[in-house]
């Protein structure tokens, strides 16, 4: 039986990387390299991990690989921070089977997406999320990203879903910061709200969010945490200054090749490899030089947390 009290008391907050998955040259999972990268981000001060999200190339994995990676992550992290898994399957039944299997690895929660490929209407979307919620006892972060996935979960729909206690959190990635206020006005504090668009995070923090699922944190964990801490300390001008430095990098999270760009940044920072699984290919030519210029300038001009007393 689901412990409804434990779910209602579940609290996630702070900076959660949408973590990259590291691969070997032959395309197989590189679990030791992935764990090493998690350690870098933990040392940088992140508050939790979302494994196998968009940046983690969820749909490029076999189910067995996903479960192997989750099991390794749980064993490595040893409860130090919460671990969530993305749930991005083609059908509701597949999502349910994966959610149930993922729970057995010992993770702390799920980040559930709409069904892939087919664009559900509102009734179908509600049915999908409710059905997946019934497949495990884990708390759920609902991921709303109409820009990438073509399904927009409106604030009014979250009112309808509020009677399911497993829905604890919303990752809002509609690229419309108005949604933060609309969700607060309609739902109050019923849900924890996480920003999901890197170059809108400061705007979202002003409006009142609980956390940030980030892509560029994979390469710049200390700087992500610096922005978070400056805002919590109400040091807004300093936060704005760091954000202005960071924005050219954060924009890489909003582009179609965000996975390749973020993994290239990870490689440039010495934390892992840029290798991805096909159909994604390593970027090259003028595109590569343009992105590298942004990354390298960011590395050269990055702020020093010690200058902020942090």
What is this structure's SSE topology?
Blueprint: H1 4-8, E1 14-17, H2 31-43, E2 49-51, H3 63-77, E3 83-87, H4 92-103, E4 109-112, H5 122-133, E5 140-144, H6 146-149, H7 155-161, E6 167-172, H8 178-187, E7 192-195, H9 201-207, E8 211-214, H10 221-232, H11 236-250, H12 258-268, H13 285-301
Parallel strand pairs: 1-8, 2-3, 3-4, 4-5, 5-6, 6-7, 7-8
Please tag this protein with its features:
disordered N terminus, alpha/beta, 11% strand, 13 helices, TIM Barrel
Q: What features would you describe in this structure?
A:
This protein has 310 residues and is α/β, with parallel strands linked by helices. The protein has a single domain (4-308), classed as Aldolase class I (TIM Barrel, Alpha-Beta Barrel). The chain is 45% helix and 11% strand. It has helices at 4-8, 31-43, 63-77, 92-103, 122-133, 146-149, 155-161, 178-187, 201-207, 221-232, 236-250, 258-268, 285-301; strands at residues 14-17, 49-51, 83-87, 109-112, 140-144, 167-172, 192-195, 211-214. The chain has an eight-stranded parallel sheet, with helices on one face. Helix 9 links the parallel strand 7 and strand 8 (211-214). Helix 4 (92-103) packs parallel to helix 5, helix 10 (221-232) packs antiparallel against helix 11 and helix 11 packs antiparallel against helix 13. The N and C termini lie far apart (44 Å). The model is unreliable at 1-8 (pLDDT under 50).
């Amino acid at each position: 039986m689901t412990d409804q009290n434990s779910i209602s008391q579940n609290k996630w907050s702070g900076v959660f990387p949408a973590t990259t998955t590291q691969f070997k040259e032959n395309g197989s999972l590189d679990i030791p390299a992935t764990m090493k990268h998690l350690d870098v981000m933990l040392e940088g001060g992140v508050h939790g991990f979302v494994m196998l999200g968009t940046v983690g190339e969820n749909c490029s994995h076999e189910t067995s690989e996903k479960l192997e990676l989750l099991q390794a992550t749980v064993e490595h992290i040893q409860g130090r921070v919460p671990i969530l898994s993305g749930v991005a399957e083609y059908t509701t039944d597949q999502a349910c089977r994966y959610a149930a299997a993922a729970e057995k690895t010992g993770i702390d929660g799920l980040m559930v997406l709409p069904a892939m490929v087919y664009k559900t209407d509102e009734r179908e979307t509600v049915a999908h999320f409710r059905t997946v919620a019934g497949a495990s006892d884990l708390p759920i972060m609902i991921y709303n990203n109409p820009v990438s996935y073509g399904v927009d979960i409106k604030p009014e729909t979250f009112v309808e879903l509020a009677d399911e206690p497993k829905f604890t959190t919303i990752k809002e990635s509609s690229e419309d910061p108005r949604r933060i206020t609309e969700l607060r006005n309609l739902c109050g504090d019923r849900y924890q709200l996480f920003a999901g668009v890197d170059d809108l995070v400061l705007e979202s923090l002003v409006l009142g969010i609980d956390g940030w699922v980030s892509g560029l944190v994979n390469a710049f964990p200390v700087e992500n945490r610096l922005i978070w801490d400056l805002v919590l300390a109400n040091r807004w001008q300093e936060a704005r200054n760091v954000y202005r430095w960071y924005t050219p990098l954060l924009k890489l999270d909003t582009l179609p090749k965000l996975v390749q760009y973020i993994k290239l940044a990870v490689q440039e920072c010495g934390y892992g490899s840029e290798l991805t699984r096909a159909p994604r290919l390593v970027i090259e030519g003028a595109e590569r030089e343009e992105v590298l210029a942004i990354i390298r300038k960011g590395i050269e001009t990055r702020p020093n947390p010690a200058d902020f007393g942090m």
